[in-house]
Write a structure and sequence with these properties.
Blueprint: H1 11-20, E1 25-26, H2 27-32, H3 38-50, E2 54-58, E3 66-70, H4 72-92, H5 96-122
Antiparallel strand pairs: 1-3, 2-3
Amino acid sequence: MRRLGIEDINAVQALLLYNIGDNEVVIRDLKDRGYYQGSNVSYNIKALTEYGYLMQERSPHDRRSVRLKLTEKGLDLCNAVRKLQDDLSTVLGGSEDTAKMLETTLATMQRVERTWTDFIHYGRPRPLT
């Protein structure tokens, strides 16, 4: 974040913005995905709104539901993070072997995420096949 000249938010808050991206999401969706827990989400959303990275709107259909959307400042930060990721990807190289290793790594990480999500929602995880 410092390399981007951003000192008003931390890495966790930047990740939250990145996960929202171009979408509009409901706070509950962020919690349900298991990325963020309870009061941390509320605190971070409040901070990101105060710093001008995030907008909050009450749903017209359900006044209890709050939709989140990035401001232009938030979108600029996401684009900067994407560029950093692209630069890192270039450093890793574009060989076929690297691509296969990254695909394997991604598949493994998705399996781990699925296991943890099942554990959070249903208790003791079942063996993956």
